[in-house]
């Protein structure tokens, strides 16, 4: 199947035969669909579902972090209504409406917290680059005047981060080194924030993941690197593959930190699974 862009929308082709059409106009939050139809002899074969799903995807309807709104005309019968309901459309007044507000992720929660807490940061550190998502966030947060350092012990993670930043027109000082060595690159008491996102490299071998024996020394180094008022953030993981040892040991380490030195926040999602990512913050005094 092939989806081709045409004036006012899209056409769906089965080889060289047009089997369906969708008329859609982009809106600020998604799109307004005015027509979706499949040629009668091609109906009940999944083409309508494919066409609608692809249109929603192209207009951001499945974006994991952005709220979207799509509208469509009221259905002509119960069968058509059931079709639209499969994709989250409900009757609102004189039209169908699909409103989607993604769940707040641990990563987004941490990023929002840092954004609200740090004004004009001068030095930010991503201690676990991965594919560069947090590194890119820190680059935007630092702006033109700030400095961003990134660490990862896996060369493929550094390469992936470099590609991610280049695609966004961003840059950072990247080091293929253990985050436990970050004080070799950062003067103690100078960093505004140090971010950790433990676990494994997304898209890579899940059997290769972080361990407490290196993570805790890195956290201790990060706390030394922070200025007074700086923030250490860490997302902890557990599950069938990685177990819970690292998460448990880091939480135990955090509980031993003296209140005279810092405040520790552990921000669990109460109605999520026990293995859900756990955002934590250490606020240095």
From TrEMBL:
Stored InterPro entries: Acyl_CoA_acyltransferase, GNAT_dom, MnmM_MeTrfase, SAM-dependent_MTases_sf
Pfam families: Acetyltransf_7, rRNA_methylase
Signal peptide: none
Superkingdom as given in the UniProt entry: Bacteria
The N-acetyltransferase domain, residue ranges: 1-114
GO biological process: methylation
Name recorded for this polypeptide: rRNA methyltransferase
């Amino acid at each position: 199947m092939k989806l081709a862009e045409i004036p006012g929308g899209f056409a769906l082709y089965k080889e060289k035969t047009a089997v369906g059409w969708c008329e859609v106009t982009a809106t600020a939050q998604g799109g307004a669909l005015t027509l979706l139809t499949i040629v009668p002899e091609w109906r009940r074969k999944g083409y309508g579902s494919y066409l609608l799903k692809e249109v929603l995807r192209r207009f951001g309807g499945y974006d994991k972090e952005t709220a979207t709104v799509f509208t469509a005309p009221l259905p002509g019968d119960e069968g058509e209504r059931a079709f639209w309901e499969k994709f989250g459309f409900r009757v609102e007044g004189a039209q169908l409406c699909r409103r989607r507000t993604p769940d707040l992720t641990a990563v987004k929660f941490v990023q929002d917290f840092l954004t609200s807490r740090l004004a004009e940061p001068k030095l930010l550190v991503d201690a676990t680059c991965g594919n560069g998502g947090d590194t890119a966030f820190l680059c935007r947060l630092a702006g033109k005047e700030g400095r961003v350092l990134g660490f990862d012990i896996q060369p493929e993670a550094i390469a992936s981060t470099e590609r991610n930043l280049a695609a966004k027109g961003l840059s950072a000082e990247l080091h293929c080194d253990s985050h436990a060595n970050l004080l070799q690159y950062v003067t103690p008491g100078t960093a505004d924030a140090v971010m950790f996102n433990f676990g494994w490299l997304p898209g890579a071998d899940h059997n290769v993941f972080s361990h407490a024996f290196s993570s805790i020394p890195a956290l201790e180094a990060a706390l030394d690197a922070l200025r007074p008022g700086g923030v250490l953030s860490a997302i902890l993981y557990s599950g069938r593959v990685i177990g819970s040892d690292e998460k448990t040991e880091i939480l135990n380490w955090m509980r031993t930190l003296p209140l005279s030195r810092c405040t520790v926040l552990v921000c669990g999602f109460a109605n999520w699974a026990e293995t859900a990512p756990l955002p934590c913050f250490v606020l240095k005094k």
